[in-house]
Amino acid sequence: MPTRNINLTPQMDKAVAERIKRGHYANASEVVRAGLRALEEDEREDEARLEALRLAISEGEKGPFRDGPAVMAEMRQRIRRRAEALTA
Prior knowledge:
The structure is a single chain. By secondary structure, this protein is mostly helical. The chain has one domain. Helices cover 76% and strands 0% of the residues. It is elongated. The model has no long low-confidence stretch (mean pLDDT 95).
């Protein structure tokens, strides 16, 4: 297995030591590997979200499109109906 030397901030070093002390990990290498796995998972999730946004934008650009003033009028009408139902 390849070996690397890394520099940690004092806070990171303390976090590694605490995880080992609590028995969650046997050594610093395990902590770093777990952190890298979490980073990879985060990056996969970010990519999936980005792809979903791209798909939504693509679908939205295809339409159908609605007239803005008409949509606003519908929203106002719905708000009025709900307000009337609450006061009735």
